[in-house]
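Researcher: Next entry in the queue.
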Amino acid sequence: MDILKELHFYNPYHGFNPHVYINDIQGWHGDHEIFYDLLDNLEPKMILEIGTWKGQSAITMGLVIKELGLDTKIVCVDTWLGSIDFINAIAKDDHERDIKPIFGYSSVYYQFLTNVISHDLQDIIIPFPQTSSIACRWLQNKRILFDLIYVDGSNDYRDVILDLDSAWPILKENGVIFGDDYNHNFFTDIKKAVNEFVEKYNQKDNLETYDYDLFWLIKKITT
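Model: Structure for this entry, 223 residues:
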């Protein structure tokens, strides 16, 4: 299945002018070595990213895919509206979370497209502008499964649980789901949600951490 054609009536990159925006790939932990390690070890065919923002981690993975010569697609799910702490961030001088509104609506999606094009990764990275729950239900209905899923959306407990519950059915057996900020002193909801999730799905023995508990990883083993 050509997911790009299934998702979009036309290629979203075609006709987009990336020169309107400067290249701005700011993110959080998106250039960490874990992305190389996972792609090198798993050689995934399909990657799902929940929470993309400006595309830093997707671009990191895309460049690794090219370096390793893998035949891999990355589906990036995001609303590009940010989570609750992004609302009116510019007024709080939190420029990292500024959604750069145009007539009141986020323009960060266009920054994401610019960053992908500037790294020549349009053939690998597929944008899916949607909530995680709706996107994952659509993918499940299409019977599209993933070898690797990166969860990096909202840090709120309810949102993390929803992202995990939504993504789990479309993760292949022996696939890996992972995320960051497991040891974060402020975003403690992430660790709480992940720990409850592994208990719920009987995956406690399959939970691992990486780089002094910065990242959490679960290898899906149900049989």
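Model: The longest helix spans residues 56-68.
Researcher: Noted, moving on.
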